[in-house]
Amino acid sequence: MKGWTASDIPDQTGRAAVVTGANSGLGFVTARELARRGAQVVLACRNEARGTEAAQRIRAQAPGARVEVAPLDLADLTSVRAFAAGHKGDRLDLLINNAGVMALPHGRTADGFETQFGVNHLGHFALTGLLLPKLLAAGPGARVVTVSSFVHLLGTVDPRDLNMERGYRRWAAYARSKSANLLFTHELAHRLRAAGAHLVAAAAHPGYAATNLMSVAPKMEGHRAKQRFMEIGNRYFAQSPEQGALPTLYAATGPDVRQDDFFGPPLQGLWHGSPGRSARAKWTLSDTAGRGLWAASERLTGVRYEALAS
């Protein structure tokens, strides 16, 4: 896959995709490139007005693109259920679990979960489970791609303190949520293999990409200096969103993607370069941790993957 770019994405005509957080950054690029190749794409966005603006930009940049917008707030399980219930059509080939939050001050979701764990992991866990019947029915080529981060290396998931009640540290919480993304992918892949399903579960990370993700927390807190620091980092050190989205796009459309693959920039660069299979922390490959997180996630969200019951 050396030198792989968006121009190498195979024809996606006849395929249907959902991309969470598609109104900006990596999600926008991912949705645009899938639509450019012929996929029918649902932009699942918390802010419907911004989603509509994004859809207009995609149509302008990729004439003929078939995109639509649907509201989805991953911080509210009622919204997740409403999105899944309202998803149009019987077919779903690609679910891109892209949306996320990073290093926010302590907060709670509508359901009382620590915000980063609730949005980055639990919201996507619930969404995937609710859309699973359509993904399984799509047949060969269907995939669930969950976007993690190389920052996952800095934090494990503590099943005894998923909401960080024992002391909140924003970057530790973010790292935990990104480890949870990989543990979820690992356990989902295991269950798909056991069920003999064609659906593939893979993950990706963008490296260091120039998006607004890191500036959200400084804006929330009114820290202009921190916001400026993040902007400088994006300008001089980060790669473009177009480059950062390539690992996700490869995981979604590449020809040799296997269960539980993890794609990102080369290890030596961490945040730059063409997509390839990426190194990951050993704990994200733990069957015991994966099963434990899965059981906790089912209990907390009330969503059970009945089609893959073991």
Instruction: Let me know the average pLDDT.
Output: 89
Sequence stretches where pLDDT stays below 50 over 5 or more residues:
215-219, 229-236
Oligomer: single chain
Q: Class by helix and strand content? A: alpha/beta
Question: How many distinct beta strands?
Answer: 8
Rg from alpha-carbon coordinates: 18 Å
If helices are DSSP runs of H or I spanning 4 or more residues, what is the number of helices? Answer: 10
Describe the biggest sheet? Answer: 8 strands, mixed
CATH architecture: 3-Layer(aba) Sandwich
Would you state the CATH class?
Answer: Alpha Beta
**Which outline best applies?**
globular
**Could you estimate the helical fraction of the residues in percent?**
40-55%
Pfam family, one: adh_short
GO molecular function: oxidoreductase activity
Keywords: Oxidoreductase
InterPro entries: NAD(P)-bd_dom_sf, SDR_fam
Describe the structure.
There is one protein chain. This protein has one domain (14-208, 218-301): NAD(P)-binding Rossmann-like Domain (Rossmann fold), CATH 3.40.50. The relative contact order is 0.15. It contains ten helices and eight strands. Residues 215-219 and 229-236 have low confidence and may be disordered. With 310 residues, it is an alpha/beta fold. Helix 4 (115-137) links the parallel strand 4 and strand 5. It starts with 15 loop residues before the first strand and ends in a 9-residue tail after the last helix.
